[in-house]
């Protein structure tokens, strides 16, 4: 298995949406998986393709990372959405995507990376902590993790992360 990374393109959008619906189908209903795919509108690949990554194995999608550099904070970058084919999880591909994004962000003069996840996504919380992200303060706790209530709207609580690229 030789996985290559490349910058995303707008033409990748349909494949990413299909992947979200399929790859999360084991943990969500079809309606929930379709709703999750709405977090990845085409505009991300129209405006942030050069900062987003596609992982391929012989032309087949193995994973992706959609991220961007903040327009309002010249020190910050943000990882918006990451997906790994379930058959390729726990093999280091997520780490490789993140580290490639970190390296590019550093070259671009970014000093920190932010990300969020839902409080119930224990796998994501553990992954981010393992990657060196710090949990940002919240206004309450869930299972010992600081959470920002209503971060993305009523009932849409989030765990917020921050990684200092210069601390390494």
From N to C, what is the helix and strand string? EHHHEEEHEHEEEE
Could you name the ranges where pLDDT drops below 50 across 5 or more consecutive residues? none
Question: In total, how many beta strands?
Answer: 9
Rg to the nearest angstrom? 16 Å
How far apart lie the N and C ends?
A: 30 Å
Average pLDDT: 93
Strand content: 25-35%
Percent range of helical residues: 25-40%
Structural class estimated from helices and strands: alpha+beta
Number of helices: 5
Please give the largest β-sheet: 7 strands, mixed
Strand order of the largest sheet: 1-2-3-4-5-9-6
Principal-axes shape call: globular
Essential attributes:
168 residues; alpha+beta; 7-stranded mixed β-sheet; two-stranded antiparallel sheet; 9 strands; 29% strand
Write structural notes for this entry.
This protein has five helices and nine strands. It has helices at residues 13-23, 30-37, 43-47, 93-107, 122-130; strands at residues 3-7, 53-57, 60-69, 76-84, 112-117, 134-135, 140-142, 145-147, 159-164. The protein has a seven-stranded mixed beta sheet, with helices on both faces. A two-stranded antiparallel sheet has the order 7-8. Helix 1 (13-23) packs antiparallel against helix 2 (30-37). The protein is globular and about 45 Å long.
